[in-house]
Amino acid sequence: MSGNVTNPEKNLHAFVPPALLEQAQAEAQREHITLDELVREAVERRLKECERHKLRASGEAPPGKRWSSRRETIDWSQCSLVEIDPEIQSGAPVLKGTRMTVDAIVGNFDYGVSASEIAEQFEIPLERVEAVLDYVKSHRLAHSVR
């Protein structure tokens, strides 16, 4: 966004693509909240994520031994398929040798995408996807993978 915005509230949705805005409005309605509340929650969540990444990168926080996602904590430090490097995806756990976050794999699976569809969509060998999901099943603390 360039230039000065004199009244940010008036321009809050000005730069949101119409299709995305429509999705956001529908989600806000499903959640029984206003669009502004949905946007505020998303911004707060993103800012917390940025702060967490800054702490990791600055060394003020332990370097990515744990990764939290959707109220769950998974310790990726024992998974040989995963690496955590502050220079790759801001320190998020990724499949070794890639920039693919394991959170993307787990999130898609939790959403209902099959392991084979994930492998095809992200061009990752099915065995690696299944190995990550197996690791999650045995290390997830908050709830089990289906």
Describe the 3D structure.
The protein has 146 residues and is mostly helical. It folds into 2 domains: 47 residues; 84 residues, Arc Repressor Mutant, subunit A (Orthogonal Bundle), CATH 1.10.10. The chain has 5 helices and 4 strands; from the N terminus they run ααββββααα. The protein has a two-stranded antiparallel ribbon with strand order 1-2. The longest helix has 24 residues.
Give the number of helices.
5
Main sheet specs: 2 strands, antiparallel
Number of strands: 4
What characteristic shape results from the CA principal axes?
globular
The third-level CATH topology of the largest domain is Arc Repressor Mutant, subunit A
Order of helices and strands: HHEEEEHHH
Classify the secondary structure makeup into a structural class.
mainly alpha
